[in-house]
Structure formats: C-alpha cells, structure tokens
C-alpha cells in the first residue's frame, strides 16, 4: 500500500508539472519592427477607428484599454491630433475544435458493423460534449504618421477554451503584456 501512495504522489506531481509547462507555452508572441525606425522620437499616439465592428465589443474595448495602459507605461501619450504613431488592434478566433462527438447511425466508421455493445436501434452512449477550443489571435500595429508605414507589429496567438470565457480577458491581458515587453525594440 505504501508504494501505491508513492506512485500516486509521483503521478500527481508529474501531472501538475506538465500542466504548468503547458500553461507557459499556451501563447506565442511574434514581434516585427522597422530596424531603421528611431523609436525614441515617438512620444504621442492616436487610434485608428475600427472600420469593422467587433463581434465582442466589450472584450475589444478592454483589450484596447490595456494597450493604452501599456503604451502609457512606455512613455507615450494619447492625443487627439498630430500623433507620432497611429495604433490599430485587431484579432479574432478561428479553427473551432470540439462540440459534440458525432453519432454514426450507419456505422460507417466501423465498416457498417456496430461496435460491441451497440445495436442498430440505439447506440451504447449518447453524444458526448467535448470542450470547444479555438485558436485566437490579437495583433497590434503601430504606424509612423510621417513615414506612413508600419514600424512595429506584434501578434499573439493561443488556444482559447470557449467554455471558460471568463478567462479570455486574462489570456488577452497576458498576451498584450508579453507583446509590450518587447517595445521599444532594442537595437
């Protein structure tokens, strides 16, 4: 019995370790920037208005507010006219995976023969819900208003669990914080 407890403790510890490692790898952030741009000259910014309405306006507003906060922490000031930089953020979710496991009334997956425990009038199990997991992304672009081109772009991608929507904002905030750790880029 004592060895069973040790193996259980090892299994739990290993599981927690892999969950912690998996959480650390949940988001990927890519940064690109114009290597000839002098980021020290950028002091002010303004937002480019959205041309396409967001599917989740509350989340989009909260993300934009976090971007404002990050830019302010980097010493940039939001202005209404004549900014040094224009800011645009966009993103979304794609590649939804999950839902319900499909029923196979014709048993096509097994060559037309029912699985053991199934019969042609009823299946052995009802459809099972599977968590919906989406691949989501957030992109932030900074445009130089004088040069009229993108000088910095950050994109974060990661898995979002649709069933845990309350964590979407936390995931977005972590992604934005991670993006702006690399702003301004070091030469």
How is this fold's topology laid out?
Elements: H1 2-24, E1 27-33, E2 44-47, H2 57-73, E3 77-78, E4 85-100, E5 129-144, E6 149-161, H3 168-180
Parallel strand pairs: 2-3, 2-4
Antiparallel strand pairs: 1-6, 4-5, 5-6
Structure notes:
- The chain has a 6-stranded mixed sheet, with helices on one face.
- It is built from 3 helices and 6 strands, in the order H-E-E-H-E-E-E-E-H.
- It has about 190 residues and is α/β, with parallel strands linked by helices.
- About 30% of the residues lie in helices and about 30% in strands.
Structural class: alpha/beta
Calculate the mean pLDDT score and round it: 75
Helicity, as a percent range: 25-40%
Radius of gyration: 24 Å
CATH topology label of the domain at 33-96 and 132-187: Double Stranded RNA Binding Domain
- Secondary structure: number of strands: 6
Helical run tally: 3
CATH architecture of the domain at 33-96 and 132-187: 2-Layer Sandwich
């Amino acid at each position: 019995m004592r060895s069973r407890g040790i193996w259980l403790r090892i299994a739990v510890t290993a599981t927690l370790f892999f969950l912690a490692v998996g959480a650390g790898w949940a988001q990927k952030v890519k940064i690109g920037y114009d290597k000839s741009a002098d980021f020290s000259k950028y002091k002010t910014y303004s937002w480019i208005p959205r041309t396409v309405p967001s599917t989740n306006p509350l989340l989009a507003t909260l993300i934009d507010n976090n971007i404002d906060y990050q830019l302010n922490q980097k010493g940039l000031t939001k202005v209404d006219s004549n900014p040094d930089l224009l800011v645009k953020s966009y993103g979304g979710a794609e590649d939804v995976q999950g839902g319900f496991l499909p029923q196979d009334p014709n048993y096509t997956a097994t060559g037309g023969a029912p699985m053991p425990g199934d019969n042609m009038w009823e299946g052995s199990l009802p459809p099972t819900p599977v968590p919906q997991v989406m691949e989501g992304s957030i992109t932030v672009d900074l445009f130089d208003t004088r040069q009229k081109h993108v000088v910095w772009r950050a994109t974060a991608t990661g898995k979002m669990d649709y069933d845990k929507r309350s964590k979407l904002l936390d995931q977005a905030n972590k992604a934005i914080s991670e993006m702006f750790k690399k702003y301004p880029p070091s030469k």
